[in-house]
User: What shape does this take?
Amino acid sequence: MSSSSAYIAAHNFGENGGETIIAGVHVDPGLYKNYDLRFFTYWNSGMKGCFNVNCPGFVVADGANLYPGQALTPLSTYGGPERYITIRIKKDEDRGDWSLYREDEGGPIGGMTLLGWWPKTLFTSLSSHATIVEWTGTVVHPETEISPSMGSGHFSSELNSKAASFKQIFAFNIHGGVFFEPNEVTPFMDRDDCYTVSSLYYSQHSDGSHFFYGGPGGCSDKN
Assistant: This one.
């Protein structure tokens, strides 16, 4: 079945055919048997890995206010109110695990709740560091079907309140310091007839570094 996702990821392709951790949102009827938008996590190392907590791997923290597989409501409205979740993946300086945080809703800026972590023992190359970080929308569909929509289902050129977006984009070093060079970010799209991505924008206000993405889909492997 088809699925559509938006997520942040950290990769290291040094060993085991590549290692990855992911957190984001998706619609995946093959996994959940419905079309709800859900928060999800994923990891892989070689031939091992899974979504959410469907195998030993990601550890849910006590007191987490968002769980892998949890349905999200309310949703954004086209041309109306936008809904966001703010998450961060950071490598724990002491333990070496990859920790997942959510910015506290209604709390002070920077207030974070630990959602869980991927133990460093799951990985070989990624246990040390990530070589690539990614903010992306993606779709998966059978070869015999057309592709589903991505994001809001509208192209990135429609911008605020209409196109889906990633905002407040940061990259961290192991000590928690922020480093981010926009000229090191490479936009990529492989079917610009069905999905597009904007340039990277910067605002001194709440949006920070941000970009827009998405599209109506309708692609197939035959066109």
Observations:
- The helical segments are 29-32.
- Residues 29-32 form the longest helix (4 residues).
